Amino acid sequence: MSILTNSGRVAMAAAIIAQPIYLAWGNGETIWDTTPPSENVATTALLAEVGRRVVTQAQYVTPDSAGAIQMTSGNYDLSTVPTNYLYFRTLFNAADAAGQTIRELAIFVGTTLDAGVTAPYVTPSQVATPGQMLLLEYITAIALSSSVRQQFEFVLEF
């Protein structure tokens, strides 16, 4: 029997953090406001992507009960050495998708943009290849306003 070792998990995290990383958001479906969608690990794309932004911060973290990064899964602290835990934080600008309602989020690695596109926020029409979906989360609907900057944080364990 083969096992994935701790150092192998760190290697996986290192491979992820070395790639372009984007957080995509989408409208989802209005039915999700009353009936949560079923989770499907085979999902590769958002149902109704609105746009994506380069992840603002991608770093290694370690679990720490007194850590400054507070997640529902526990607390974490930043690590200066590679670990099998990755922290992703994305801060959208207030103008990003203003007026849209967001119900789905996904982290993508390996996204490539159309030639000449360099903006940190892009729409689906500016994406050459979406890359691989690493994480998917359905959220309570957020009506975006041009006066509020949205921030999202995730910690993934490999």
Strand content: 35-45%
**How large, in whole angstroms, is the Cα Rg?**
16 Å
Shape: globular
Structural class by sheet pairing and helices = mainly beta
Distance between the termini: 19 Å
- Placed side by side, the strands forming the largest sheet appear as 9-2-1-7-11
How many β-strand runs? 12
What order do the helices and strands follow?
HEEEEEEEEEEEE
Flag low-confidence runs.
none
Number of domains: 1
**Mean pLDDT, rounded to whole units?**
96
**Helix percentage range:** under 10%
For the sheet with most strands, the description reads: 5 strands, antiparallel
List the helices and strands and how they pair.
Elements: H1 6-17, E1 21-26, E2 49-54, E3 57-63, E4 69-71, E5 74-78, E6 85-91, E7 101-109, E8 112-113, E9 121-122, E10 127-129, E11 132-143, E12 151-157
Antiparallel strand pairs: 1-2, 1-7, 2-9, 3-5, 3-6, 4-5, 6-12, 7-11, 8-10
